[in-house]
TrEMBL record:
This is Phosphoglycerate mutase. GO terms for biological process: glycolytic process. GO terms for molecular function: bisphosphoglycerate mutase activity; phosphoglycerate mutase activity. Belongs to the phosphoglycerate mutase family. BPG-dependent PGAM subfamily. It is an enzyme of class 5 (isomerase).
Amino acid sequence: MAAVHRLVIVRHGESAWNQENHFCGWFDADLSEKGMETLWTIMEDTDQMWLPVHRTWRLNERHYGGLTGLNKAETAEKHGEEQVKIWRRSFDTPPPPMDKEHAYNKIISESRRYKNLKPGELPTCESLKDTIALPAHGNSLRGIVKHLEDSHTGPTAHVVQNERGTGPFADSLRGMAPPLPSINGRNKTAWTCLVSDRASDI
């Protein structure tokens, strides 16, 4: 019988732009009053504040391109609900790219977070196929779950319907990621990012 490994994924707390129904993407919106510092809350509640925290742009929400900052309802009125649903939920269809004149282009592209990126690494938009990541935003979670379910070779339409609420959920992963040898008495599990431009062991 294949080993069962449990992966717990947590969606971040609500941001101001979530509350206001704006496309956020790579814009670093403040948390709303309802939001919380998810990582610190979990570490404190599980008495694991000693764990190291690794930050990387590779764990960003996918880049919403030209949709960044727009109201989702107003965008649906302009382009149609079906088109916006495809931009938001499809696996391999990116939103319109962000041009240099976009209101948030300079804020994002000149952020100190990305000063060490190589030429061509900073995207102008991304589909879920481009962004597979473990923690963070709902769209990133839809992408990783699709890969973990090994459905990337099949139809992608169901990903459009895959809604993940704020908070943790778990998936049983049978034989997909064998544990690595114990490190400092704690077992580690290896996961390799399935997208080449963000590839790394995590």
